[in-house]
Amino acid sequence: MAVGNEVPSSLKIETLISEVGQQINSDKETVELIKLQVKEIEKGVLKKEPRFILRVVCTLPKTRKKLNRDVFMSVLPEYYYLHDEVFKWIPSKGRITNIDENIIIPILPEIDSYLHLLILIYLLDCGNFMVAVPCSNKLISKVCDQNRRSMSLIAAKAYFYHSRAYELTGQLEKIRPFFLSCLRTCTLRSDSLGQAVLINCLLRNYLEYNLYDLADKLVSKIDFPEKANHNEWARFYYYISRIKVTRLEYSEAQKTVTLGLRKAPEKTAVGFRQAANKLAIIIELLLGDIPDRKIFNEVMMRKSLEPYLELTRAVRDGNLTNFSEVLEKHGNTFRSDRTFNLILRLRRNVIKTAVRGIGLAYARISTDQIAVKLGVDSPQEAEYIVAKAIKDGVLEAVLIPGYMVSLEIGDIYRTMEPTKNYNKRIAFCLELHNLSVKGMHYPVKKYESRLIPDQDIEEDFDIDFI
Fold first, then answer.
1. Structure pTM?
2. One GO molecular-function annotation for this sequence (predicted)?
3. Which of 57, 156, 355, 402 could form an S-S bond across to 193 if both were Cys, CB 3.0 to 4.6 Å?
């Protein structure tokens, strides 16, 4: 028998059979899960309790991992006729378990929108972006046609994935006017979750095309809803930080990006934490500080932050040659991360660090030697750099024709620098305390507590607290 035509062994066949059986069982579990979610949505609508719909929305990340064509072909025929439009978004292959159209009853708009949302997410995960765009348009039309309070949670997710579909097809600017009108509508209806999602989508839209002035104007005109969840707050702080650092407001940018990292989940949202940490490292370098080493040693961050570790070393050493090599080596990475223009500003910090090191090492040095150490073209340029550093307070020295003479370093504790640093740290701790207090959950007030024995009050408190 030829080697190339080997028959699979019995062990391989059994493995394949078991894998197929596991997949079928997994699909059945997913179908039952979606049916259970539909019942929860129906219960939330009928009882006017949004918490039931919120449970379904919170399980969406786990549900999307289990979606496939067979699952949809088992679920959709129970709620739609076979000639309905939703079936054209799913490929024709697959098994259809329910073909009896006589038992189908009209479904609620919330259930219709949720099932349509699952189809859109499936198309985006499969990479069918061109099909996802008309699918998202249809979903948004369904959501906007219904003025129902119970639709708010599903509508917020629909806005996000609608923006994502247009972003992946490179036509994000087309939906900007529509999102502005939706934001106005959500504001009038006091839809806090819809407001938060739309504000973040609009900020992402503006920043995608480097429209920082428009993004800053939007932030100044709106109030981000306090009832928004932590994920939306984290995104909002990240976008604010990008706007602030572009406008040279480095202290505010560092403050907001730190708040964004604190609001983000610790074990998930790896991509967001990587992007936020990259921005935080650049901001800290622009402020003249060196980032903590433990940021680069985290398992999830180690590979993505490796170019930024080399950049930090070059800035810390004040070596212009190494700095230029890092820019040339990782330029494409920095451009894809949208930090290249910010990193170009670090050249000034590298020069300052190098000049400070020269001033500490030499009591008297010629401008010719300074030019060689800094890697600049002429002694006149080196003299200009030293003069600028002296004026900015980076270096305590004087210039005489052809030489730089370092002065004796004064006592920093006789200046206002320690006071400024203490005030900065105290203000940060106080704000962190205020945010922590806002995030705490308290038991419901018991106005009739005077009529209840102390033991009963303690039991009720424990139940509410849990």
1. 0.77
2. enzyme regulator activity
3. 156
